[in-house]
Amino acid sequence: MSTMSKTKVFFLFSAVMRLVEFPFRLFLKCFGMRNVAWFFLAPNLIFFGIFSLLPVILNIAYSLTGGSEILLNDRTYIGADNFSDLLQCEDYMDPNSCKEDLFWRSLSNTTIFVFLQVGMMVGFALITALILNRKIVARGFFRSVFFFPVMLSPVVVALIWKWILQRNGLLNAGIEYFGYEKILWLLERNWAFFWSVFVSVWMHMGFYALIILAGLQAIPKDVYEAARMDAARPFVIFRRITLPLLMPTMTVVMLLALIKGVQTFDEVYALTGGGPGTTTTFIIQYIYETGFAGSPRLLGLAAAVSLLLACALIILTTIQFIVKKRSANG
Amino acid sequence: MARLMLFLTRTRGVKRLHWTDWFSYSYLFLGVLLMFGPVVWMVMSSFKTETQLMEFPPNFLPYGQIERKIEGFENPLPLFLVKKGDYQGKILAQSRRVGILSHLVDPDDPDTLIKINVRDREPVKEFSLSLDNYSELFERFKFTTYLWNSIFITVVATLITLLTCSMAAFALSKYKFKGKLPALALIVGALMVPHTVTLVPLFLITKSLGLFNSLWGVILPAVASPTGVFLLRQYMLTIPDEILDAARMDKASEWKIYWRIILPLSMPALAVLCILSVMWRWNDFLWPLIVLFDSDKFTLQLALNSFQGQHDTQWSNLLAMTVLVLIPIATVFSFLQKYITTGTASSGIK
Questions:
Q1: Would you call B32 an interface residue with chain A, using a CB distance cutoff of 8 Å?
Q2: What is the CATH number of the domain that holds A269?
Q3: Does the beta carbon of B27 lie under 8 angstroms from any beta carbon of chain A?
Q4: Nearest C-alpha of chain B: how many angstroms from A120?
Q5: B251 touching A (Cβ < 8 Å)
Q6: Would residue A67 count as lying in a domain?
Q7: Pick from A47, A62, A263: which is nearest to B224 by CB?
């Protein structure tokens, strides 16, 4: 930006800020100097109240109503029916026997997905971080190579991979070169599931690698030096020093990945659309489809599932906070 | 497993590359290939014409068949290399194709017609970037509308987020007042309940405020970002209170203290929040998907998603559009990657 336009921007900024001085004085006249903090809090709290706090309360109210009307007043109170519908199953091991079979299927899909995704992601992130923590050339470059997909939009990531995985795509050209048959990667159940895990690991791994790397770099160097004085073998150093000191970071990373993983929607939805069939339909997509995309809109049911999901997330986040606080203190 | 650990923990000897270094570097180079490869492949493909995209196996670089204008023919004709027969090794232009016979003419002698089996000729290709996919985006699709919507949402939302979050952070870090603890507790609580689990009531609130199918309905729900308030508050706590007291001595109003002292001093934290907010908004998908249903209101992400059919996808324009959506974020990242990576590592937020 040139100096000229910089001054212009600053001039505009200070003009706007000076204008706010008038409502600010008015506020002080009405509420006094004691309450000055509320002037600064008000805009944020208003948005926060309307769009964050109110929804939490309304969500509980919604989950107790049925029908397809949108406004809460028009809806009929049905008590805990939504929840009992969700939980009504003849055999909990078999989603087909449940009343809301799609809910159970998306739940089991999400569980398997999160299990695989978090495992793969944390594993690769740890290896990447350990390698990036060595004395290597161009560390900054390699660090950003692994990190940049984090910045990309999920839809873009999905399309990049869809283009490679399509029928006449790069991957099929590759395997045909080696004499194998073409595979419809996104239309075969197991492959589609594998690729949705793979793509989301590809996208998010760099973020966790970066946090683990920061954890590795926070381990004091003299501990290693002392160990080397004692002629400890590298593997012993890793097991006795690096791993224990890295454990709090790893726990936080694991929980963070779990919290994010449960909410996976964007990249998988853009990649597979939840298919083939319902193989890659996860819990957020189930909420989206019951509440918004389908007709009739079952907002009550969607709210009930949201509430259950919120409870799970709150438990996970609380554990994460406790772990983080303990590691910060200890 | 034990050996793998051995691999990863050894540091390099001074004299020569240890085999663990070989492992590290091959891992890193494989990583570069796997992380960059798909993106480069997509960018390359976006410069190919529709026919080139159909080719199997695909070429890495976009190669186009050369066409030449020849006297007596209206349209430019494609050039072919003859592989067999009297004209072997000559480059001829094809005027038309009848069954398995190709009607060719010599560019230097356009009047004589040569008939050759299609199997005995092959197209002459050269490296050429086709920009048709890009120009079509502007001509045939409402690309500029989507672009404008995305830019509007990103810029306005980021400005409001920065303003409201920094004001709140100022109050929560520099004042003592009744209700400060509840306010803080509320924001911590909000960190636990992401918007993804309150979609239903959020949808109702947006609808009853008349913000449904409007860009403001995408902007407003997330401006009071608790992450942002926290990030800024942690930073503002490090600004010494003495500076504020000095300003108060000079009879500066509290509002003036906020915008003339606190804001400039918290520039680094504001920059981090600014980058985060731009990224969140530009890449946002689920909430716009619910709020915006009119294609005139679509953001780039929604347009991208709606372009791809479930079974057949119009790849030529989609590829170009993907590249264009990717460019702003890629540019921001390549200029600021050092700040972004260190900022992410220290705050643990993405």
A1: yes
A2: 1.10.3720.10
A3: yes
A4: 15
A5: no
A6: no
A7: A47
Omega before B194 within 30 of 0, i.e. cis: no
| Angstrom distances, CA of residue B1 to CA of A236, B5, B6, B250 | 13, 6, 9, 67
Number of domains composing chain A: 1
B341 or A165, which is more confident? A165
In angstroms, the CA B218 to CA B211 distance is: 8
| Range A98-124 average pLDDT | 93
ipTM: 0.88
Domains and CATH numbers, chain B: 65-126 (2.30.30), 141-307 (1.10.3720.10)
Q: Quote the mean pLDDT of chain B.
A: 85
User: How many Å lie between the alpha carbon of A82 and the closest alpha carbon of chain B?
Assistant: 14
CA angle in degrees (0–180, nearest 5) for B35-B148-B143: 70
pLDDT for residue A49 is more than 60: yes
**B24: nearest CB among A70, A131, A160:** A131
| Torsion angle of the four alpha carbons B329, B332, B333, B336, in this order, in degrees rounded to the nearest 10 | -160
Task: Tell me whether residues B350 and A150 touch, CB distance under 8 A.
Answer: yes
DSSP letter at B83 equals -
Full domain range(s) for residue A171: 111-293+301-329
Task: Convert the pLDDT of each residue in A264-294 to its tens digit.
Answer: 999 999 999 887 889 999 999 999 999 888 7
Q: Is the pLDDT of residue B15 over 90?
A: no
Q: Rounded to an integer, what distance in angstroms lies between the CA atom of residue A228 and that of residue A214? A: 22
Predicted confidence (pLDDT) per residue in B224-261, tens digit: 888 899 889 989 999 999 999 999 999 999 999 999 99
Question: By CA distance, what is A63's nearest residue in B?
Answer: B200
pLDDT of B2: 61
Q: Report the residue of B3, B4, B5, B9 to disrupt the A interface, i.e. the one with the largest count of A CBs within 10 Å.
A: B9
Does residue A20 belong to any structural domain of this protein?
no
Q: A34: which chain B residues are within 8 Å (Cβ-Cβ)?
A: 177
pLDDT at A107: 92
Distance to chain B for A191, nearest Cα, Å:
17
Q: Which residues contact B86 (CB under 8 A, 6 or more apart)?
A: none
Which of A41, A135, A283 to mutate: most B Cβ within 10 Å?
A: A41
